[in-house]
Amino acid sequence: MNEKALKTLEYYKITEQLESFATSSLGKDMCRRLMPSAELAEIELMQQETADALSRVYQKGSLSFGGVKDIRGSLKRLEVGASLGTGELLDIAGLLENAGRAKAYSRKDTEDENTDSLDGMFQVLEPLTPLSSEIRRCILTPEEIADDASPGLRQVRRNMKNINEKIHSQLSSYISGSARTYLQDGVITMRNGRYCIPVKSEYRGQVPGMIHDQSSTGSTVFVEPMAVVKLNNDLRELEAKEQAEIEIILSNLSQAAAESLELIQDDLKILAQLDFIFARALLAKSQNATEPKFNTEGIIDLKKARHPLIEKHQVVPIDIRLGETFDLLIVTGPNTGGKTVSLKTVGLLTLMGQSGLHIPAFDNSRLSVFKEVYADIGDEQSIEQSLSTFSSHMTNVVRFLEKADRDSLVLFDELGAGTDPTEGAALAIAILSHLHRQGIRTMATTHYSELKVYALSTQGVENASCEFDVETLRPTYRLLIGVPGKSNAFAISSKLGLPDYIIEKAKEQISQEDESFEDVLTSLEESRKTIESEQEEIAKYKEEIKELKARLEAKEDRLDQQKEKILRNANEEAHRILREAKEYADQTMKIFNKAGKETLSAKELEAQREKLRKRVNDTGKKIALKTPEKKKSSLTPKDISLGDSVRVLSLNVKGTISSKPDAKGMVYVQMGILRSKVALSDLELIDEPVITGPSLQKTGAGKIRMSKSASVRTEINLLGKTVDEAVAELDKYLDDAYLAHLSSVRIVHGKGTGALRKGVHNYLKRLKYVDNFHLAEFGEGDAGVTIVEFKK
Length: 792
Hints:
The chain is α+β, with helices and mostly antiparallel strands. It contains 22 helices and 27 strands.
């Protein structure tokens, strides 16, 4: 991968972030030297390693490799048989202990847990616990060897301690004895590795011994008294023996390490590699990155991709496609709208993916393996670009055109800028056409309208734009593929306060075709926003419908289950009751059969019958259907009036209100021939059908209810009237009774000669709404009363 692309796309900032997650010097070095690969198998292996390490981090937490030092130099010395120092041996112990921790970290919680790409490396690790424990036992710190490192060292140090005590005892006698007046200070000091006392210069002859030093002023000399010279000599000899013992200990430990040299080398290599892999996993975790899917067809499909060097709370995810239906993507839009960021996002994520790093994008994002990435991206986006800047860009373009092929990704920022717009646009189209004909995946940003038209009219070339909100004068940083962007220069200038007459004058300077093209872009943008809004609303409705459907299905399932349970329980209960009844009936039949053979008293038979009767009644109660509770009415005196049709709930009979409610809320209700006093709580208003007739329309009311006032009685008395008089009065009465919904009435005509009864019966035969009539029963009037029943 060329160095310029790595610098332009800021790849090294990513490796710096990666390095910060490594904990060993070797791991950090591998992070710094990480470069993109062009081999698909190597890329996929590295991606799998990163994914497996990330999975382990989420499950068990991170793994530290801080104890892994770069001991390659020490291992080289072991190869040639050299003896290592205390610090080097402690570094080896730290390495082995780290190998042990890594080995324990890799253990599976269950035997059937799936293996991954890191299992092989963890299994090869050899902690060499006996060696690391022995090193730790013998060496306490880089400056201190334990007394128990060897028997010889323990004896030497015991002897040294005894001599030290004797020396201090002898010198203390000088300090506290008669020689105290000869001393400058009452202290014991050391010069040239030997114990001395400070003697005043004028008394040097009073303290026999060897002078080892004197003070800068010459007033004090440091004398080793003759009494401790031999003891000091013995101490020096013991120190030499101590050093010899230490060298033997270090030699033995070095020899033990050399015997396992290959295993230690393997541990060092594997731990450094694991540190490198887990650093990649921790970087992915910090970026909320995912594993991309790689292909060799030049297809890029990034979903909700984020530039990794922009703060998470600031970056706007974008969707980018390239290489499947089109191999050239031209991105347009205003300055600071996100065009360059989109360009860099594609390039940097490609480099990261080919380096085995996860990318900050949604799952199932796709990247292609490119052997080279060429990027000409300048941060200076000024209209005052000089010719030298244009020449620099053209130099890059020339080099790209010479080296780029179908396995390359080419990125241009503001292609053709820095020169005459007409010539720049023409050059840009020619360059992009050349790359397009060769099938080279290319992405370019531009302000030129000519390139927008080129993308619209060329197969395999697609427009894209960075959305800009004219109302707020701020970009949304969303990348819209398939929609060419507007420069929005006039709208932005107007919002910033530029006078309208200047803007109108500017519009006159552009051609009619350009103006029409911008109008088309505006219309496309408005249509896109409308469609997006409608799609969001439709998606919302779909989600609601889906939720309601799921709830309804769940409710139906519950109802079906409850229904089946109720039916099952009812069947089981019915079978049980029938079984009990059958058993009891069989038992009773046995008793009756016995009664036929044996003589049972009438009293005993009656007792058996009574018992059977009670059992049958109990069984009937068990299987009887429970009647629903009667409804209670909530009528008040204000709700009813005379003549209203009601239903008496307790009797389930229709009737007509025939009186006003009294103080206790009781009213008279006419129910056919029955007139009874009923509580309001036992009544329910009902609607009656409405009839319409020509005679009624003349009144202006148009409709009347089929009810009369409560004054209609259930009986008419015709005694003493002639037949003609009786029929006239009976005609009106029967009409009123029928309209009052009376089911039957009584006609009192008396017995007499029978002429009035005969005339009434002849008249009743002619009435269509009379269902039947008959003389009253015995005790109700006999032949002197006729009962008339109306049709319903």
